[in-house]
Design brief:
With about 80 residues, the protein is mostly helical. About 70% of the residues lie in helices and about 0% in strands. The protein contains four helices and no strands.
Length: about 80
């Protein structure tokens, strides 16, 4: 299980990458990039806590079950990975 220190390190790395994105002068979709970097691990964490139960994971995340399924498909996540 990840510790709070691991989560802080991950966030620090993400913010450093964000600073680089702002500073490099390239036109990129920063919002989309950041959301994708956060969303996939967040969905995986919710699925792990619910042993792959998408309905329960959707409730934890505060999103509709169909929205979760679309995101699971988008990111190529297999909820079966956490089934017991």
């Amino acid at each position: 299980m990840e510790s709070n220190a691991d989560n802080r390190n991950y966030l620090e790395i993400m913010f450093e990458e964000l600073d680089d994105m702002f500073g490099n002068g390239k036109r990129i979709a920063i919002y989309k990039t950041i959301v994708e970097k956060v969303e996939k691990p967040l969905i995986e964490k919710a699925l792990a806590r619910t042993f792959g139960n998408q309905l329960k994971a959707a409730k934890i995340l505060g999103i509709n079950r169909n929205t979760l399924r679309a995101k699971v498909s988008k990111y190529g996540i297999s909820p079966k990975k956490w089934k017991i």
